[in-house]
Amino acid sequence: MEETTRRRQPGETVFGYLLLLFGLFVATEGYRIDGLYSPSAAGMFPALAGGVMALSALAIIRRTHRMKPAHIPEGSGTAREFLRRTTPTDVAVMALLMLGYMLALEPFGFPVASFVFLFLAIFYLHRGSLLATLLISAGTLAAVYLVFRVLFTVVLPTGWLFR
Fold it and tell me: How far apart are the C-alpha atoms of 9 and 83, rounded to whole Å?
């Protein structure tokens, strides 16, 4: 029986280094909470979690450096192949829509930003009629608004453009 070994995928090593940086960041932020003066200090758990993340990332980096790189098709670079394998178009579009939604919440407020986000996301993913998308977005936003604003009296952002 022939043994097959897994090859290092494009971007895998870079991802390991990003995990390492994130783990170190979390550990540092945990320390910054209160200095870790005792085992029950508020920052102890985040600092320990960040330390475990950083150590795990070092193990991942070590393992990936030992692997042979995967075959990259002719005419494709490592970065392009990484994006092709890890980021389908729908995921990338939704990530951009979410980023836009986060940026729009402060100036436009919850109702406007949420309606636009819902409308664009449903229209893109459902690929249905414009009228159906409009009705679903409006109905969903109305239900969310009623539940959170009216029933639970949660203060939703109004946006500085409409004050």
Answer: 11
The answer to whether the beta carbons of residues 156 and 145 sit under 8 Å apart is yes
Pair (46, 21) in one structural domain: yes
Q: Are residues 95 and 153 in the same domain?
A: yes
Residue 64 sits in the same domain as residue 93? no
Q: Using the 3D structure, point to which of 40, 66, 86 is the last residue of a domain.
A: 86
Q: Which H/E stretch holds residue 156? A: none
Burial (CB count <10 Å: 0-12, 13-18, 19+), residue 68: exposed
Question: Residue 146: pLDDT band by 50, 70, 90 thresholds?
Answer: very high
Q: Greater confidence, 62 or 34?
A: 62
Q: Are 104 and 95 in contact (CB under 8 A)?
A: no
* DSSP string of 5-43, one letter each residue: -PPBPTTHHHHHHHHHHHHHHHHHHHHHHH---STT-TT
Q: Which residue, 86, 116, 139, sits at the end of a domain?
A: 86
Question: Residue 130 in 3-state DSSP?
Answer: helix
Which amino acid type is present at position 36? L
149 pLDDT higher than 80: yes
pTM value > 0.90: no
